[in-house]
Amino acid sequence: MATAVRTEITDRVAVLTLSNPERRNAMNLDLSGKLADAVRTVTADDAVGAVVVTGEDPAFCAGGDLGELAKADPATLLDVYAGFLAIAECPLPTIAAVNGAAVGAGLNLALACDLRLAGPRARFDARFLPLGLHPGGGYTWMAQRVLGPQGAAALTLFGDVLDAEEAARIGLVYRAVDDVVAAAVELAARAAAAPPDLVRTTKSTLRLTAGMSTQAEAVEVEVRAQAASVNSDEFQQRLAALQAKISSSARGQKG
């Protein structure tokens, strides 16, 4: 069966579903390229304000294609990384709806998203070292950023495999839920409902300030961006609507 990345847009949220059913959505070169293309397409679409990534049931993404990896040079590996790197670099808010096993490259894909939700069948397994394979695609940086040195070591060096509840307990995922795609779309729709330029700027600011060592540095970045938003038409319109709603409520209480 052919690989595909299906795109469905609901409430300004693009749901990208990986499909490589014979290999449990393993990230081969073809699927990686299609995911990168899909991310570029939805990012350029004014009708899309956020992105959810999931896999065709029952898996999220069962790792990289070992046959391709066995013959890979650095240039080929970068092509394998292209899909989840496109997610990592996406200017829109991104959520991984982890519906099943996220192994190796699949764990990379989940980590590349801004936020992760785990369904009942979710399982998180680095599995690089047992295969004799060094982690790649920025995995070591992402894992330590999300889990800290000890948590990253547990998954990477010591082969700890996590289910949904344990992943939520240690902070690998934001929440464990029953219907993971529906929950991800509902959450993503909140971001997609905000002014598009503001959302992109705020995501950029979050990334920038995450690497800063003092609050004062963050204030310098935020003050300029916030001043620009205050002067935007979107803010003025939303402020006027809020003030009108408050006035109407106050009149109703007096009556």
UniProtKB/TrEMBL annotation:
Keyword match Metal-binding: no
**Top EC class for this record:** lyase
Q: Give the EC number(s) listed in the UniProt record.
A: 4.2.1.17
The protein's matches in InterPro entries, at most eight in alphabetical order, are given as: ClpP/crotonase-like_dom_sf, Enoyl-CoA_hyd/isom_CS, Enoyl-CoA_hydra/iso
Question: Which Pfam families does the record cross-reference, listed alphabetically?
Answer: ECH_1
Annotated coiled-coil segments of the chain: none
According to UniProt, the name of this protein is Enoyl-CoA hydratase
